[in-house]
Amino acid sequence: MGEVACCDDTRILKDESMNWNSFDEFWHMGGYGLYVWGSYAVTLGVMAIEAMLSRQRLSKARQAAREEPQS
Fold first, then answer.
1. Could you report the per-residue pLDDT of 18-39, keeping only the tens digit for each?
2. Calpha distance 69→64 (Å, rounded)
3. Residue 68: per-residue pLDDT
4. How far is CA 8 from the centre of its chain?
5. Closest Cα partner for 1 from 12, 11, 15?
């Protein structure tokens, strides 16, 4: 970690672990890329499936409401 000067003689520690020199390093994320991007992929997949299932349930509910006999 390096030290960076700030206003009013305050020192802020600069964490250099988030600086990537290439896009490839960004994707690998220090060896944790598989876990990070895999987690994002699984989350995106689950959210997409939930959106599809919600649309199906809404469609079925609307169809059931149309088919109900009116008294």
1. 677 888 888 898 899 999 999 9
2. 10
3. 80
4. 37
5. 15
> Which range marks the domain in which residue 10 is found?
2-67
**Looking at this protein, which amino acid is placed at residue 39?**
S
Q: Report the alpha-carbon distance of residue 1 to residue 13 in Å, rounded.
A: 7
Number of domains forming the structure of the chain: 1
pLDDT of residue 30: 87
Burial readout 38-68 (b: 16 or more C-beta within 10 A, e: otherwise): eeeeeeeeeeeeeeeeeeeeeeeeeeeeeee
Flag whether pLDDT at 8 surpasses 90: no
Query: 40 is written with which tokens?
Result: 């994002």
SS3 call for 22: coil
Say if residues 1 and 15 touch (Cβ distance below 8 Å): yes
